[in-house]
Amino acid sequence: MDIARKFAAFLLLPVLMLPAACSKGAAEAAATAPSETASVHPESGLAVVPLTVGLASGKSHAFRVEVAATEAEQAKGLMFRTEMGADEGMIFPEKAPRQAAFWMKNTVIPLDILFIGPDHRVLNIAADAVPYDERPLPSKGPVIGVLELNGGRAAQLGIAPGDKVSW
């Protein structure tokens, strides 16, 4: 299934689940229990999907990431956020491979910015990007996505160029 169809399915899922979430108990359970299906981030309103990074060691690490799919969502990204969970992040999918550069304008928390090539492998990592810094942090080639994690998280988990990313 292509990214556009997955994203459309994730957008429809909350509508289909509305009757189940109408009770206070169901809403609280949905907010606190991790799920393998799509959900919506309470602060951004973006779809949240599972993402896995396969490490060279053969291990993998699972994240739940917000999908910044539109130009407006991508322009805002994680600006003004004051915290993010250890296994959370934001993915910026591209419709076609392109050179990319990110900056930290209005971004409060340090980030690791992982540039993902057309083969779904990490091309390069801008590690511990400095909050509010407006210098561009470029990819080392065309990308199909960019993943933002908490600063230092990639090194902590041993994520490196060449590791496989799937979402």
Q: Over all CA atoms, what is the radius of gyration?
A: 16 Å
**CATH fold field value:** Jelly Rolls
- CA distance, first residue to last residue: 11 Å
Mean pLDDT: 84
Q: Which range does the strand content fall in?
A: 25-35%
User: Count of DSSP helices?
Assistant: 5
How would you classify the helix and strand content by structural class? alpha+beta
Give the % helix: 10-25%
Shape: globular
Let me know the largest β-sheet: 8 strands, mixed
CATH architecture: Sandwich
Give a brief description:
With 167 residues, the chain is α+β, with helices and mostly antiparallel strands. The chain has helices at 3-16, 18-21, 24-32, 71-76, 153-157; strands at 39-40, 47-54, 60-67, 88-98, 101-102, 111-116, 122-129, 137-138, 143-150, 164-166.
Protein model, in words:
The chain is of the alpha+beta class. It has one domain: Protein of unknown function DUF192 (Jelly Rolls, Sandwich). It is 23% helix and 35% strand. It has 5 helices and 10 strands. Strands 1, 2, 3, 4, 6, 7, 9 and 10 form an 8-stranded mixed beta sheet that branches. A two-stranded antiparallel sheet has the order 5-8. The longest helix has 14 residues, at 3-16. Mean pLDDT is 84; it is low at 1-35.
Task: Give the secondary structure arrangement, pairings included.
Layout: H1 3-16, H2 18-21, H3 24-32, E1 39-40, E2 47-54, E3 60-67, H4 71-76, E4 88-98, E5 101-102, E6 111-116, E7 122-129, E8 137-138, E9 143-150, H5 153-157, E10 164-166
Parallel strand pairs: 3-4
Antiparallel strand pairs: 1-2, 2-3, 2-10, 4-9, 5-8, 6-7, 6-9
